[in-house]
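Why this split exists: single-chain examples teach little about how molecules sit against one another. For that reason, every record in the complexes split bundles all components of an assembly together and asks for one structure covering all of them. Below is a record exactly as it appears in the raw files.
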Amino acid sequence: MNQATDRSGELAGRPPNVVGGFQRLLLPAFIAVAALLPMMITSDRWMRVLVLVLVYVVLASGLNLLVGYAGLLDLGYIAFFAVGAYFTSIITVKVASDSFGLASDDLWWLFFVNLALAGLFTAGIGIILGYPTLRARGDYLAIMTLAFGEVVRLVAINWTGLTNGPIGIRDVPTIQIAGTRLLDPFYLYYVAFAIAAVVLVAIYRMVASHIGRAWVAIREDQMVAQCMGVNTHRYKLLAYASGAYFAGTIGVFFAHTQQFINPDSFALEDNLLVLSLVILGGAGTMWGPVVGAMVWILFQEWASDQALVQDYPALRMLALGLLVLLVIRFLPNGIVQKRTRLDFGERKWGLLGRWRSEDEDEEVAEPPPARIPVGNGPILKGNGLSCSFGGVKALENVDIEVHRGEVLGIIGPNGAGKSTLFNLISGVVQRDAGSLELDGEDIDRLPPNEVHGRGLSRTFQNIRVMSHMTVTENLLGTADAGVGDRAAAGVPYPQAAGIAHAQVARAQGVQGDRAADGTDVGVPRADAGDVNVAQHVAQFQAAQAEAARALEFVGVKGKEDLDVSSLSYGDRRRTEVARALMGNPKVVLLDEPAAGMNPSETADLGRLIDEMKETGVAVVLIEHDMNMLMSVSDRVLALDHGVKIADGTPAEIQAHPEVLAAYLGVDS
Amino acid sequence: MGISVDRVIVWTFLIGSALAGLAGILYASKYQFVDPTMGFVPSLKALVAAVVGGIGNVPGAFVGGILIGLIEALAGGYIPGGSAWRDVIVFVALGAMLWIRPQGLFGVRVVERA
């Protein structure tokens, strides 16, 4: 553990992480044993079993990326494995040998080429399948993947010219290196070991970066992830394509070790088997699928020696089913009893990463300049906004204008269209008519993540937090993924909260608007393809520092490491507000933040909104607590039945006849 | 609101399973053949039909079912060698539907409430 990591631990207000001596040795010991295993085992049969274990390790880890991390239920994962296997078999046997008459010994390198190509091929299929499906509801993916599994099986059976149909493809050449055939499972083990190692490191790197944190945020609450700036479709597609890539790659290895494949090599049950291994070991953990695959494949092989199982082979699957049920009942998180932690990569980067420069850490300590609005007009401006669901007009021709540093209260009876207005502004629902501008920039019809990227953030009417994650993790889940997205989109993005900066500036008696240009303040830019360790560490630490500041600002300091579910209601609301403040927004929409709060919590919230306003953030507030709303708002907008009925100072609104009528049911 | 959730779920399952059972009787008497795994592909196609018609829409499911049945039967009959590919054609129809009109023929785009 180096110095930088310790310091970032302190930033988040928790003691530097101490990994126990035993735990620290666990991983290297595991790798050493795995590497030396073939020296100790003389039986060919068990060596083959170990090779199979590694194949399943890769499959389970790849599926875990989808199911465990990104929360995408794929029931046809084996199809990608099959496509990879058929891809290499067709190229080496059907094309190279049969059509061109080339000797497989001369083409030994083709295996290694296919290892890379098959992955690209399956990832491409994954993108074609995933692109439309991942936009739709989650259960569509399960249907689509099942259907894809069937399509692959049917193609393998029926396209006899390409796949030899049910007979399958024989004589797939063994893996060779320059003429030396690696027939001995001893060598095959090392090839599989190398592939598995590369795959696991790749997964580790993705999961430990902002990509993994975005996946977890999507898994926990897709809507929140999107409203906090994560391009959910892109990240889901990335997960799906990566999973497909790994399955295709190991499929190539499988075909060349079996030397024969046919449609029966890839049964429908295998999808459930791999899924079971993921659940068994622990979905959403790095090592769960590895452990699950080892435990089950070894047990299965041992069981096949037993007389009982030899008489009734189906007992094995029955045992697996029972085992999975028992694990779900008694170890709901799987054998590896660790829940997904969003900071685990940061703690362990040193193990796998490249060098880390001290300079990067220094840049983080300095709070970058605040994001100052660039235009002169109102910060948020909506004209003639209309929106209807089916036949119901939720909003009709509503104008809204919010000025910088202003608190605009929105009132109206239930069903007046207040939340719809927020959904419309934040891009969650699309308007039927009207225009929307944020700081002079057209944000009409932008998806929520891009609206967030342009400086508009929000909370939700029913608190939406990841309740079994810690407070800090709730803020981090989306924060630095958003950073990456914005950087990729070329949107300037100063890293730390302008709020914190303004606070510091106030304390020092300095003007808060030190520099308006946020283009280059040593912000680590993350391109989607560039996985630079130092960059990610810096990015993560910046996000962590920003989270600490946001939490301090809203007053949840000292509880950063508690699960959100253990917090009081008020603290959960405050956590949500802190999350909305991440990314230094220009406008924050608060949807009934005081609902369910006691009077003193409400008073604290009022003070918090005042402070937010002082830092220059514009706040739009929906609230049923009239005392609070009227005391913090500069202006109030009243809605009824989707129509704006009044707009003015709190005093004007309180005396407005139509408002009184809407609330009290009096005829005006 | 006074709705017995359990009872509604039980009834939903009951009606759904009864309809599936009915379909099973029709299927078995047409093909004159049963086996334990015969339900997998038809239930998958039922999902496809529901998606094509628009999930959560009764007339949609009806039309989707007829449409999928027709596509399958006509493709099997008219395309040379099509009988081996009819299932594939059905699933491709699903993919096409998700590209063109993800909410299905009669479905309304469902917006998650924030």
